[in-house]
Every structure is written in C-alpha cells, then in structure tokens.
Write the structure tokens for this entry.
Amino acid sequence: MRRLAPVLAVFVCALLWSAAPAAAATPVTWCGTDRLGANRTPDVDTGSQYRVHVIYAIPSDGQDRFGTVASQIATDIGAIDEWWRGQDPTRTPRFDLFPFPGCTSQFGQLDIGFARLPRPASVYADLNLLQLSADLSAFGPPAVKNIVYYDGQVLNSDVCGTTGYLADRDGGAFGFAYVWLRASDCEVDVGSGRLTAEVAAHELTHNLGAVQRQAPHHCADPQFDGHVCDNRTDLLYPYVSSGATIANAVLDIGRDDYYGHSGSWWDVQDSPWLMHLPLFPLAVAVDGTGGSVSSDAGGVSCPPACSAQLENGTRVTLRPVPAAGGTFKGWSGACSGQGPCVVTMDAAKSVSAGFGSTTFALAVKVTGRGSVRSSPSGLACSKSCSRAFVANSIVRLTAKAAKGYRFAGWSGACRGTKACAVKLDGAKSVRAGFRKRA
Ligand SMILES: [Zn+2]
C-alpha cells in the first residue's frame, strides 16, 4: 500500500472524510513485559490451530522501542478487531492471544513476538521481503500468519505496508504481512487505531487471499495487481490518503470482489484465519460421581474444565468417560441417549451427563469342607455366599481346607489351586472343591 500523492490526498481527504471524524480507538495497555522470539503458549483460543500472530522486528543496528510500541500495536490490533466485526458481525481475525496473569483487557493479551534481526537495516531497507521472512522463520509454522511491525529505516518512504503473496491457504513462509513503521511519508500513527491500523488490515487482507484477478473491480493497471479500483474508501484500494482511518474504510464495497461475494473465486470470508462469531457458551455438568466428560474442542474436559466459549457453527463431540466402578446412565439437556454426542454450537448449549456407580455379584459355592475368603473383605464362606463388589474391581479369593481336607481346586470363574483373582466385569460365580485327605 502506498500513500497518495500529497496534493490529491489533502483534497480528497477533506472532501470525503472531514464531515465524519472517527472516534478515537480505545487505548490498550499491553500486559506482557518480556521480549520473546517465539509464540507464547498456551494460546487463549484452543478451538483452532490457525493464528494471526503479531511481531515487532528491528534490524541488528536498530533502536529497540518495544517498551512503548507494544501497547500501541495492541491498541491498533484492537481497533482492527472492532472494525472487522463492525463490517461483518460473523467474523474477525484469529489474533493470537496469550493469558497473561491478571490481564483484564482482551487485546492486552495480544501475543506480540519480538525479533532482533541478525542483519543491519541496510540489508532490509529496499523492502527485502525474502530476507526478512527468512530471518523471521522462527515465527512461521504453516497455520500462522504474522503481521510484522518493522522498525527500521526503509528506502521506499511512501510504501506504508507490503505483503508478498496472495496466500489464501498458506501461512508460514508465505504468511508475512509487513507494516513499515519508519516509512516517513506514511504518517505512521501506530497506537491511534487509525491510518497505520488500516495499513495493517489492508496487508493482512491481501495475505488472506485478496484480491483475485477475476474480481469485477480488480484494478486494470498491472502495477495495482491484487487491489480494487472501484472506490478509494475500500480497504483494498491501492492507496491510503492523508488523514485516513480504518473506521472509515469499507471491507469490499458492494461485497462483489473479495469478501462475501457470490463469485466462484476465493472469498476471504471463508479464510480459516477468521473466527466465526458470535461465540456461544457451552456448559457441561456431571451428575453423580461415577465419571467425567471428554471433548474434541474448546478445551472442555469436565471436571475440571466444564465450560467454554465456542465459535458459531462448531461441532463438538462429547464423550462420557465412566470411572472404574462407574456407569454412564445417559445425557440430558442438549444431548440424549447413551453414546457420544455431537453438539452444534448455533446457540448457547448446556449438557448434563448422568453417572452412577455399578456393582456386580460374586457368588461362591463350597463343596467338601473348607472355607473361602475374599480381599477386599466381604466374603467368608464355608457353604455358599454371595456379595456385590464395585464393577470392574478385582477380588482375590483364597481357599483354606478344614482339618483332614485338602483344597482340590477352583471351577467357574477361577481355575487351578492357587489364590484366584476375579475381575468383576459382570456377575461371576466360583466353586471351591475340598476333598478328604486319603
Ligand atoms: Zn495493497
């Protein structure tokens, strides 16, 4: 994205936007303090592997302003999120958040990476994207896109942001979108949630796969490849004007070129790097003490994690997990029956899993003269006896012959003549035979 030529910019800006000043963005205080050259884990969002991560990068000879810029970046990302949801209430980028302890604001939790690059500014100054992306590869797993705020001198002072690739499905090495913090003609205002925020949103949207050449308003001039030329307020117009602010930008005017359109070409609204809103709460309860509930989404594993905010349309599979001796009696609420349950999150949902403990009978019959005892205790028999034990527990039986008798062996659920261990995975019966000594 380039800044407009100054004369035109002032004129256009005054004409189009002076009547509608945008509200200032809510300032965000970043909750981190550390300079970390990698993704922080755990991530707040566990419902998807896709992330839009943010990096502050300086060349090896650059001045480290991370301490002040971090909160400014968090403020701008918060403004992008708010703007995006205003343009499309069903989507927002999956900005990577980290649960900093005690952090009370959503974008205070922004996971901002720090990169002290291995080369001096002179190597990167002509917007050397290949070298930058190679030197930032530690931040580039395939499911991650990165917005890089590069704080070094650049030669093209009127280029406000750059991204190298229309990567509809690729993150990693193809997933870097750059904002040039020292592009001196770009009226860089990071932290105000205005022009630089628009630059970041513009470059990210390119990187999410816009604008494909089939789009009806794709710019005819080849130097503006990947942009739309129908209206200068469109986020993907090739220029940004003096005084511009993201609040006045429009995400695909007419919804016919790159976002929510009806054409057959790639639609950024389908990007896996966008979260599906609204989030709906899922509440799981366990009734009784005989088991727990596992799931495949949202970190729900109850107890202890019995609730989550899940994206609109998420399909969650819940499974009852009976404990030893427990039995699953069935679901209630949004699930029914006895098997695994799939919940589609198209509204707030609550589910309860009923468990109880189960017992099975162990019966012992003695022939001849002798006795049988159990461990755990409960059975002590010289004729016939029966007792219930917790399901799936193991009961050990020992046989003791009366005077003048010997133990001849087990039958039924036991074999042989040694102490016997019976697994109570159902009702069981055992016979113990004693014979008179010859
Ligand atoms: Zn552009």
